[in-house]
Amino acid sequence: MSQQFPDDFLWGGAVAANQVEGAYLTDGKGLSTSDIQPHGIFGGVVERHPGDSGIKDVAIDFYHRFPEDIKLFAEMGFRCLRTSIAWTRIFPQGDESEPNEAGLAFYDRLFDEMANYGITPLITLSHYEMPYGLVKNYGGWGNRQTIAFFERYARTVFQRYQHKVKYWLTFNEINMSLHAPLTGVGLPEGSSKQAVYQAIHHQLVASAKAVKACHEIIPDAKIGNMLLGGLLYPLSSKPQDVMETLQQNREWLFFGDVQVRGHYPAYMQRFFADRGIAIDITAEDRAALQSTVDFISFSYYMTGCVTTDEALNQKARGNILDMVPNPHLESSDWGWQIDPQGIRILMNELYDRYQKPLFIVENGLGAVDKPEADGSINDDYRITYLNDHLVQVREAIADGVEVLGYTSWGPIDLVSASKAEFSKRYGFIYVDRDDQGNGSLERRRKKSFFWYREVIASNGASLKG
């Protein structure tokens, strides 16, 4: 029998404010970059006008219904819930000198409700959104001033929730800025690599300043970074493919290298030089980057392959992140390849590289769920997916990897980030709403709800395999 999960393992689920809360202009909230992308990250920018509507404006109405949802999470036995604070609830335009009290009060209510059930909050400061005011008036993260605005926001929420929240993350999937610059750094799609990497630099400095502020204000807290775990394999054993894979993996590991080690890795000097990129890094920036994270958190959904064969690369264009598919793996309904063993490989890679605790903060299967005539939802495919991944997490723990917890993505159905769909469901809890926004918003337990409850209750002993 492989080693089991640690006794204090934080089992739970993960959501994001802009995918569940709704109430998009309620109680003084300002417009965020997510609000001007009502059709999702890859759905383009839409100027919002009074009276118009988008599916995320209500989402699953978590803003008003969270007590019901937290109760359901508690029924599953959650020890942890990851969510995010909507920056625009606290600073509606981003540059105010004083925070919005109504926004702060909402998260007080949410964290108090979680405390009632003994659920530990894991809170992301910026999850795929920032104040649109900072984009419009300052140029987003392309402007150095945004660092100070973010630090003010971070210090405000650390001060306010210091007795309620002990686990924090800075930026969600920070490496995604390379693929979605508006979502990541508030820059227009099609921005130059020079502009994107300069904005990323400002964000890395801001992340480090948030780490320092967290350690000052909440000495007993832990604060981590958050990477999109984009593990790539060579398609063949050709040395050219192996070298190209090393370089492409470094493009996302670079973010972790800076946040964990406190400086830019040497390989990035060549990367920048080869592309004619010159980053403005001040002495103050270098000092700030020395404040490093306590743990590494990451999402894991799939792996991809790398080849130097240009014909195969052309064919892959349009796939998720333009990745070449692995001929040895099956795919989900959305073309995401399913690779449970990849999570064990990734965990070993990250732990070998950083020797810091890991936290799996997103992993899940987006699928079309069809209620039966009696209303039940038999999502055995989700159970299989999660079971097989958790077995590999257990193997990684047996390998000696230190893991704090596992929060599955979307424990309750939510609006998908990429295309703002409801039809792509992740949850253990079904929400009655469709892609057109029709439905009662009624919550219903799926078969996976009872499966996950048993996994948590048995601390993973019920897993098959």
List the defining traits of the structure above.
14 strands, eight-stranded parallel barrel, 465 residues, TIM Barrel, two-stranded parallel sheet, alpha/beta
Overview of this protein structure:
With 465 residues, the chain is an alpha/beta fold. The chain has a single domain, classed as Alpha-Beta Barrel (TIM Barrel), CATH 3.20.20.80. Helix content is 39%, strand content 13%. The protein is built from 15 helices and 14 strands. An eight-stranded parallel beta barrel has the order 1-2-3-4-5-7-11-12, surrounded by four helices. It has a two-stranded parallel sheet with strand order 6-8. A two-stranded antiparallel ribbon has the order 9-10. β11, α14 (380-398) and β12 form a beta-alpha-beta unit.
Task: Provide a short characterization of the protein structure.
This is 6-phospho-beta-glucosidase. By secondary structure, this protein is of the alpha/beta class. Helices cover 39% and strands 13% of the residues.
Helical coverage, percent range:
25-40%
By oligomeric state, this entry counts as single chain
Adjacency order of strands in the biggest sheet: 1-2-3-4-5-7-11-12
Mean pLDDT: 96
Number of domains: 1
Q: Count of helices?
A: 15
Query: Which structural class do the helices and strands define?
Result: alpha/beta
Overall 3D form: globular
CATH structural architecture:
Alpha-Beta Barrel
CATH superfamily: Glycosidases
Question: CATH first level: which class?
Answer: Alpha Beta
The strand count comes to 14
Low-confidence stretches: none
Compute the separation of the termini in Å. 10 Å
The helix/strand order is EHHEHHEHHEHHEEHHHEEHEEHEHEEEH
CATH topology: TIM Barrel
Q: Approximately what portion of the residues adopt beta-strand conformation?
A: 5-15%
* Largest sheet entry: 8 strands, parallel, barrel
Radius of gyration: 21 Å
